[in-house]
Structure formats: structure tokens, C-alpha cells
Design a protein that fits this description.
The chain has 252 residues and is mainly alpha-helical. The chain has helices at residues 6-26, 30-38, 44-63, 68-77, 79-93, 101-120, 132-150, 155-163, 168-193, 200-206, 208-224, 227-251. It has one domain. Helix 3 (44-63) crosses helix 11. It is found in: Cell membrane.
């Protein structure tokens, strides 16, 4: 089917369903789960292509769940981060063939694991608001550079939101807004790069339905989570994603 074995398609659908559930529950991790899982049985470019369209569609749902006004407020509040994502995803998308996969996974996974261990140990990092502009700009650049290469640009923003103790609903909404912005840029960039092509676009479109079903189920779970549990599960999932990226880096 579209160049894949049937078992590969079924496994990809199952992974996407689960990734959609996690995204609905905590607001992120879908591309990380999909990329790290797909890369275990699919070529790197195919793995990246499959996550692009479901990421785009689910982020529309997440960003506008509380309405257009709330989404626009998030855009204003985090405009510097969003601007850096817009600028740097297209730049790094042109480097997708020039950076070793193992190096990319190590550079992303290492800081994620270190931050998660630090936070779960009870030694929380609090970023002063007077440095917000500089912090958002730097983390946005980092997120954009990783995003074009791997399809993953969320960890720098997640780390920032945890560090400023952003409320649960606001965190999920701004993640949706930023992820949607990046997803639009990523889709356009890889239509140009060739990662999305006549063979991979139908496969990516096939992943949209399981992603939406999983996300609906995740929304129901999210609404029942108290803020402490939400933060804990966010850190746990962030840490697991980072550890898996390090595993992939070590395996080459």
C-alpha cells in the first residue's frame, strides 16, 4: 500500500492513534512519539512525511478549542517564539539531508532528559519574566532549527511553559497555536524539499483519522487531570521522549 507493507501501515495507524491520545491529554508529544516509533520500521524521510499532515490537522483542533479569541491572545503573548519558528523551520528544512540522524537525536534528546530529571527531582527552574523576550527568542530559534529537520519543535516551548508555571489550559492552547504555526511552515517546506511527494502524501493523509480519534479521547482525559498531575505527566512524557531519542542516537 503506497510502497509500504500492510503490517507497516497497520502499525503506523496504531502508533498514530496512541500519539493522538497523548496529544489530546497533555497537548504535545505526538510528533515525538510518531517519529521515534516510525523510525524503528520506516525510512527516515517516510517517517517524517507520515507525521506532517496529522500534526497539521490536530493542531488546528488544539489551537482553536477555546475559540479564535483565545487563540489570538496566545499569539500576542508568545509572538517572539512564534516568529522564530516561522523564520527558522524553512532554513533548517533545507539541511534535512546534511545532518546525521544520530547527531540530531542526541542534540535534542540530551537536554530534554537533563531538564526532566532536574524538574522531577524537585529542583524547579524558574525563569524571571524580565528576561522573557530574550528567552523566547532563543528557544524559538532552537525549536525552529530542530523543527525543519525532525518535525519536532515543541520541547523548547514545553520547557519554557513549565519554567514559568503557565496554567494547564493556557499551556495546551499556546502549544496548539505554536505547533499549528510550525506545522503550516513544515508542510510547505517539505512540499518543496520533496519529503512530501506523490507517494508519501496519501500515507500522511491516512494517518489523519486515527490521530483525530485519539485526540478526542485525549481531550476527555485532559479535562479530568488536575494541574499537579498534568505537570507530572508532562514531565514524564517529555523525559521518555528524550530518552528514546538518545537511544536512537546511540544505536546510530
Amino acid at each position: 500500500m503506497f510502497g509500504l507493507e500492510l503490517w507497516e501501515v497497520i502499525l503506523a495507524v496504531a502508533v498514530t492513534l496512541f500519539a493522538g491520545f497523548v496529544k489530546g491529554a497533555v497537548g504535545f508529544a505526538m510528533p515525538m512519539i510518531m517519529l521515534s516509533s516510525f523510525a524503528s520500521f520506516l525510512p527516515p524521510h517516510t517517517a517524517l512525511a507520515l507525521l506532517i499532515l496529522p500534526t497539521l490537522v490536530t493542531n488546528v483542533m488544539q489551537a482553536f478549542r477555546q475559540g479564535v479569541g483565545a487563540a489570538w491572545g496566545s499569539v500576542r503573548n508568545y509572538r517572539l517564539f512564534i516568529l522564530m519558528i516561522i523564520l527558522f523551520i524553512p532554513i533548517s528544512a533545507t539541511m534535512v539531508d546534511g545532518i546525521p540522524q544520530a547527531l540530531m537525536y542526541a542534540l535534542l534528546g540530551g537536554p530534554i532528559v537533563a531538564f526532566t530529571i532536574w524538574q522531577l527531582s524537585g529542583r524547579q527552574i524558574i525563569l524571571p519574566t524580565r528576561h522573557r523576550a530574550v528567552t523566547e527568542t532563543c528557544l524559538g530559534i532552537i525549536g525552529g532549527l530542530y523543527g525543519g529537520i525532525s518535525g519536532i519543535w515543541g520541547p523548547p516551548l514545553i520547557i519554557y511553559l513549565l519554567s514559568i508555571n503557565a496554567p494547564k489550559q493556557e499551556s495546551v492552547r499556546i502549544l496548539g497555536v505554536v505547533f499549528l504555526t510550525g506545522a503550516v511552515i513544515l508542510t510547505g517546506s517539505h512540499l518543496v524539499s520533496g519529503v512530501l511527494n506523490a507517494q508519501t502524501i496519501p500515507l500522511s493523509a491516512l494517518m489523519v483519522l486515527p490521530a483525530l480519534i485519539g485526540m478526542r479521547l485525549g481531550f476527555a482525559a485532559h479535562d479530568k487531570l488536575d494541574p499537579v498531575a498534568f505537570r507530572r505527566w508532562t514531565l514524564i512524557l517529555l523525559g521518555l521522549a528524550g530518552a528514546n531519542l538518545l537511544r536512537k542516537a546511540l544505536m546510530g
